[in-house]
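Sanity check. The docking grid for S-adenosylmethionine depends on where the pocket ends up, so I'm generating a full predicted complex first rather than guessing from homology. Inputs follow.
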Amino acid sequence: MSAELPPSNLNVILLHDQMVDKTGKLVTTSLTLIDLHDIARSCRTFNVNKFYIAHPSPHLRELAHTLKSHWNDGFGSTYNPNRKEALDHVQIVSSLDEAIGRIDLETGQLPKLISTSAKDGGERIKFEECRSMIRENSSPYLLMLGTGWGMCEELLSRADLFLEPIKGPGQYNHLSVRSALAILLSRLV
Ligand code: SAM
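Predicted complex below; grid placement will be based on this.
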């Protein structure tokens, strides 16, 4: 077990409902196990408090529970304890609101929501400012990640803060959510 750090006030949630597809249509994307694995490891590496994976489908949530239990108490827990440690901090929920409710229960405060997108536009907060805010406040924060072609406007607008996009030197900007999250955490923590 890695040396214990004090629990962080930063949480992460991967969302699948209220996404848009390439035509801008509202869709619910599919949960993928590689997202669960990879993002859990990034979250553990950066001492994120909890990684919530939200999906409205009970079947897909069951799939995520099966994976989590394999690594938490199945063969995987002895075969690869590092993976177990990462998945210990994964919470499987049905929605953003359920995750908000759990954080409120755990901390006695509603989390400040931080939305993300590769696209420009909107009133964005800089990484440095967001990092200082998280560090200087003890209140909980919930970093929202989308899937597909990103979160719909309604979901983005629920957030208290809208983080600036990660940008490369050119116009091309199509990071996977796994890669984007790792970069976001390296700039926020
Ligand atoms: N074009 C989509 C968008 O603008 O959100 C990218 C979708 S990407 C497959 C899924 C998620 O990864 C996004 O909803 C966002 O949470 C995150 N993401 C991807 N690229 C990002 C970037 N350059 N900056 C910030 N977040 C990014």
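Relevant for the grid: The chain has a mean pLDDT of 94.
Also worth noting: The beta strands are 10-14, 19-20, 26-27, 51-54, 90-93, 112-115, 141-145, 161-162.
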